[in-house]
Design brief:
By secondary structure, the protein is an all-alpha fold. The chain is about 65% helix and about 0% strand.
């Protein structure tokens, strides 16, 4: 029996073990090209996924293993709830309690004209058809991480302005150890120049610290979390207010405006 045949036999007899799934090779050049494209147009979300595919390597695989080691992780992984359909269910979102994480998420995405389906569509660009929806635990975990991005905006208190996104990617690196997040955050740090940029850099560094200090968000039961009061959830998860971010006036939270204000 060949090694491939043995692997197939083992997968059939032990379905709890994921079948082999190729790990993308890290490609810094590809990641940098996507980063520069993202800096030219920060609304080009496809480039974020391109950076993740180029640099994150085994990060999702390791995070999935960590999920299984948490008290509720086995159940969460076994149920494999797809979050995007839930987050697109307007009636379900409208039924969540006032003041809850889910109510805040609903108001956030509607005010920003965002949707879970829109984010999912961006994640499919540039990859083989069906790859994102692959019936595999690691692919499911990747979709779960994608679909929780805007929930993390709500939990952390970071807006969708350039600074808020930079702070959240710094936070996300500490939570996931995906090098793609680190590249975007350090790229934002290097672009903050001039006397008026110091508070901007301080806020991004605060994002790293908050990500390291808070509870591990990928291990949360999101259906339960969305029904939880927002401030209760933040306290439970160790998410203190983003003081450095909030200290910067909203009109100065885009990188180019930070530099202009210093002139």
């Amino acid at each position: 029996m060949t090694a491939a045949e043995a692997a197939r036999t083992q997968a059939k007899t032990n379905p709890a073990r994921p079948t082999a799934m190729a790990t993308p090779k890290r490609d810094l050049g590809r990641a940098l090209r996507a980063l520069f494209a993202l800096f030219r147009d920060r609304e080009d979300t496809q480039q974020v996924f391109e950076i993740m595919r180029a640099l994150n390597g085994t990060a999702s695989r390791k995070a999935y293993a960590r999920l299984l080691a948490t008290p509720d992780g086995g159940r969460i992984a076994y149920e494999r709830v797809e979050l995007a359909p839930k987050l697109m269910d307007a009636a379900w979102l409208d039924g969540l309690p006032a003041g809850s994480v889910g109510a805040a998420y609903r108001d956030f995405v509607r005010s920003e004209n965002l949707s879970a389906d829109g984010l999912a569509a961006e994640s499919r660009k540039g990859v083989a058809e069906g790859a994102v929806e692959a019936p595999h635990p690691y692919a499911w975990f990747g979709r779960r991480m994608r679909d929780t991005h805007d929930i993390w905006h709500v939990l952390t208190g970071y807006g969708r302005d350039a600074l808020g996104e930079a702070c959240l990617v710094a936070f996300s690196y500490q939570q996931t150890k995906g090098l793609g997040w680190a590249l975007i955050a350090f790229g934002a740090l290097t672009r903050a120049r001039g006397p008026g940029a110091k508070p901007y850099r301080v806020a991004i560094r605060e994002g790293f610290r908050r990500g390291r200090a808070s509870a591990w968000l990928p291990g949360e039961d999101y259906e339960r979390l969305l029904a939880e009061p927002l401030e209760v959830a933040r306290r439970r998860l160790g998410l203190a207010p983003p003081i450095a971010y909030e200290a910067i006036p909203p009109q100065l939270r885009n990188g180019e405006r930070v530099q202009a204000a210093a002139k």
